[in-house]
């Protein structure tokens, strides 16, 4: 795929989903904001811009380009399976989603990785911009893990671009300060991660933080027994963030977010 076409597709869908979620949050918010929304969102989005620039400078190849290179060389497990294109694409998207789930669990379980990932969890509120808020080093490391998964699986470029689009869209959707109608939400949650399901993962309660890791498909949490249906305090009363990190000046400002992994880890056990 031509790099310009890939960027156009991804950027267009990213902006479209982001604007749609911002409008949804504006007119039908799930919870009342607890932090000054405009300033907080501004710093979260500034981190996105910084991460995009750094990733473009540091990473030599995109995920789609890596898939194309693997296809030319015949690398990957899927390259050895004779299956229809649609089945290969579906299998690749599902397995890549599983890889992201396992990566997410590892970023919580391994202390040095958690120090990076806690930038995402230290957000004192929960909305669409939370889904874009990750430390720059985590972004680079996640991209390298994704490239390794692509080399192992050998998915087609089409499967990778579909996965990338789904990953970005569902990350924004599941972090939205929104909710689905009560009759519909359980049906949607049976297939994909919903905002009410993932919001529990951002609870201040550690047992709830260590649940509902799924990015797109909700089945992995049920399969690996990390699923939690509801927070103990309820969706409205649940406190968002990390107990040790409640200083708004530190956790909701770009310099503080970038420094957070390197601050005394004894404060966050």
Count of extended strands: 0
What integer is the average pLDDT?
94
Helix and strand content put the structural class at mainly alpha
Listing every helix as H and every strand as E from the N terminus to the C terminus, the arrangement reads HHHHHHHHHHHHH
How large is the count of helical segments?
13
> Approximately how much helix is present in the residues?
55-70%
Low-confidence stretches: none
Cα Rg: 18 Å
Question: Would you kindly provide a written description of the structure presented here, covering whatever features stand out?
Answer:
There is one protein chain. This protein is mainly alpha-helical and 269 residues long. The protein has one domain (3-267). It is built from 13 helices and no strands. It has helices at residues 3-27, 37-58, 63-73, 85-109, 111-121, 136-153, 157-174, 185-189, 195-199, 206-209, 219-223, 248-251, 254-259. The radius of gyration is 18 Å and the shape is globular.
């Amino acid at each position: 795929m031509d790099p310009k076409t890939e960027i156009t597709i991804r950027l267009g869908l990213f902006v479209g989903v982001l604007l749609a979620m911002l409008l949804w949050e504006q007119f039908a918010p799930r919870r009342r904001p607890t932090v000054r929304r405009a300033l907080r969102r501004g710093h979260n989005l500034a981190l996105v811009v910084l991460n995009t620039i750094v990733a473009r400078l540091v990473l030599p190849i995109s995920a789609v380009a890596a898939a194309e290179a693997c296809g030319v060389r015949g690398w990957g497990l899927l390259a050895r399976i004779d299956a229809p294109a649609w089945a290969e694409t579906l299998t690749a998207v599902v397995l890549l989603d599983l890889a992201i789930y396992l990566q997410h669990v590892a970023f919580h379980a391994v202390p040095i990785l958690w120090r990076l990932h806690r930038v995402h969890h230290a957000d004192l509120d929960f909305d669409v911009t939370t889904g874009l808020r990750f430390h720059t080093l985590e972004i680079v490391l996640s991209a390298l893990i994704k490239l390794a998964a692509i080399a192992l699986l050998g998915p087609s470029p089409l499967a990778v671009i579909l996965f990338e689009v789904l990953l970005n869209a569902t990350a924004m959707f599941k972090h939205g300060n929104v909710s689905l109608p009560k009759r519909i939400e359980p049906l949607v949650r049976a297939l994909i991660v919903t905002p009410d399901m993932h919001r529990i993962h951002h609870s201040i309660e550690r047992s709830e933080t260590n649940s509902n890791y799924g990015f797109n498909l909700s089945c992995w949490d049920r399969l690996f027994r990390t699923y939690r249906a509801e927070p103990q305090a309820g969706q409205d009363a649940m406190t968002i963030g990390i107990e040790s990190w409640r200083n708004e000046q530190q956790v909701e400002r770009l310099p503080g977010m970038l420094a957070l992994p390197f601050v005394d880890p004894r404060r966050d056990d």
